[in-house]
Design goal:
Structural class: alpha/beta
Bound molecules: zinc ion
Order of helices and strands: HEEHHEHEHHEHEHHEH
Largest sheet: 5 strands, parallel
Length: 235
Amino acid sequence: MTEETEVCKDCFGTGTKVDPVKGAVACPCLRVNRARRLIVAARIPRRYEKCSFANFISEPATSQENALLQAHKLAREYPAVDRGLIFMGPAGIGKTHLAVSIIRDLTEKGFASIFCEFGSLLKQIQDSYNPVSKSSELKVLAPVFQADVLVLDELGATVPTDWVRDTMYQIINRRYNDNRLTIFTTNYLDKPRSEKEQVLEDRIGTRLRSRLYEMCKMVVMDGEDYRKGFDARRR
Ligand SMILES: [Zn+2]
């Protein structure tokens, strides 16, 4: 990457430039560089790295459009918000796209944000118990606890053993107690779409489900809308 090695022509990398009227002022490159560092630190997966509010497609008056408005509102109003969002709905509907878009906007505003796929986070924690591993649980979890804003993608996707439920609860509850914002995506709903289908509570436990009610506003994204829009676009 040439961008990182290029020295700013205004401040020569000092962070201070001379303004003809105001004298020595902070160089805008500081803010740009900080935003660039933050977006790298956010660990957005490659398949989502282009996702932004600008390229989210939604038809008017659908649950997708409502979800976009909610996500945009949160990104605009942060840090003056007291609850995160939980995007609920079937795979491929744009839940993660919106969560990543929020991260993108917030890093541009200078807030440290992190994207975590919940299943791989749990795996990393498990791996850290292995004595051969060079990682430790604390090392894995420190950024998750410290980020201003955390996205936990695919809540409930991991087979819910006691350890999984307990660990999920510890992580999320710590964020709650520290008053830090968390955004979730999940394929599970509170009401099953069919008799056989599990609901979110089956996957994460009653205790965590009720904690989420306090931490987050629910944003349900409806599959029907999406498929209708998709078919219309293909026709
Ligand atoms: Zn500069």
